[in-house]
Amino acid sequence: MTIGIDKINFFAPHLYLDLVTLAEARGIDPNKYTKGIGQEKMAITPLTQDTVSMAANAAEPIVSKEDAALIDMVILGTESGFDYSKAGATYIHQLLGIQPFARSIEIKQACYGATAGILMAKDYIEKHPDRKVLVVASDIARYGLETPGEATQGAGAVAMLISSNPDILIIDDESVAMTENIFDFWRPIYSDNALVDGKFSNEAYIKFFADTWHEYQRRTHASLADFEAICFHLPYSKMGKKALLPVLEEADETTQARLLANYEESIRYTKAIGNIYTGSLYLGLCSLLDNQDKLAAGHRIGLFSYGSGAVAEFFTGRLAENFKTAIRTNEHQDLLANRTALSMTEYEELFKQKLPVDGSTLELDSKDDTSTIQLTKVTDHQRHYLKK
C-alpha cells in the first residue's frame, strides 16, 4: 500500500498588486523586487476573504460528496488564524459538508504547520487505509505598509487530500526533521504584523536545509542525482535557490542543470502570488507539476519545509502513475489569469481596512469577490460565511 497526495488544489484571492507599481510608489528600483528577490505580483485579500474562506475555496473543488463521507480528519495549517481557541478547521468542516464523526484541528508552527498535518495524516491512513484526511494550508502574509518586508507579502491556500494509493504523490517513509529555538521571524499575540530579522532568517533557512539534507543523505545514502526536482518553502522565489546552490556543488553537471531548471518551474506561481506561509512549499509543488511537462511517474521529488522559530523537515515523494490526469493545471492558470490589478491607492486603502473587534456587526459587500466561498458578516464576535 502507498500513501500520499491524491488530490491538490490552490486558491488565491482575485486581487493583486504588481510589484513594479509598488516599487515606483516607494521610490525603489523595480529590479530590487523583480530580479533581487524574484517577485512579480502579490495577492491581496479583500475583507471578504480570510484564512478560513481561502482554505475552503482551495478545498471545495477537490472534495466530492464521496470524499466528504470518507474524510476522518480536517487539518488546517496556518499562522494567521483569527481565534486563539476555536480551530479554523471547524468552519471548513461545515462549509464542505464533511461527515460529522471527523476530527477538525488547527496546527501552528510558522510555515511548517501543513507539513506536520500531512505527516500526521499519513500515519492515520496507514492504520485506516480506506479513509481520507483533508490537509489545508492557508495564510495571509502581512508586514505593514512601507516596511522592509512589504514586497514579500501575499495570500493564498493549498488543499490536499491524503489517501492510500494516491493519484499524485506517494510520500516516502524516511524524513528528517530539525528544531532550534531561534528568533528569525515571529509574531507576538498583540501584533497584527510579523517581526523579522531578515538576514538571520535567510541564514537560518540555508543552514536548516543543508543540515536536514545531509542528515537525510547520511541515513539513506541518497544523492542529489536520485531527485528529479526539489521543491522549497518559498517566502520569495529566490530563497530556495540560495539554499540549493551550496549543496549543488556535491552533484555532477547534469544533475545540477536538471535541478536548477526544475527549480525555475517550481517558482512560477510564487512569483505571481507572493508568500503564502504554510502553503508556499505546496504552491511550489503545484507549479512544478503544472509547468514541467517532462516529469514522469516514478520520478522522485524532494521537499524542504521550513517554519521560522524554527522547525524544518526534508522529506520525499514519488510521482504516481496517474499524476498528469489528476492535477488541475488549467484551473490554476485560469485563476491567475482572471485576477484584477490594484492601484497603489486601492491597495493601501484595502490594507488599512479591518473587521470589528468590539462585537459590533459588519455586513460585507461581496459583489466584486468572484470566489465560491466568502466571509459575509461579522456579528457578536462571530464570522459568518456564504457558499455560493
From TrEMBL:
Domain Hydroxymethylglutaryl-coenzyme A synthase N-terminal: 3-165
CDD domains listed in its UniProt record: init_cond_enzymes (cd00827)
Keywords of the record: Acyltransferase, Transferase
Keyword Transmembrane helix annotated: no
Biological processes per GO annotation: acetyl-CoA metabolic process
EC number assigned by the record: 2.3.3.10
Signal peptide from the UniProt entry: none
UniProt similarity note: Belongs to the thiolase-like superfamily. HMG-CoA synthase family.
PANTHER family: 3-HYDROXY-3-METHYLGLUTARYL COENZYME A SYNTHASE (PTHR43323), HYDROXYMETHYLGLUTARYL-COA SYNTHASE (PTHR43323:SF2)
Name of protein: Hydroxymethylglutaryl-CoA synthase
Organism the protein comes from: Vagococcus coleopterorum
Taxonomic lineage: Bacteria, Bacillati, Bacillota, Bacilli, Lactobacillales
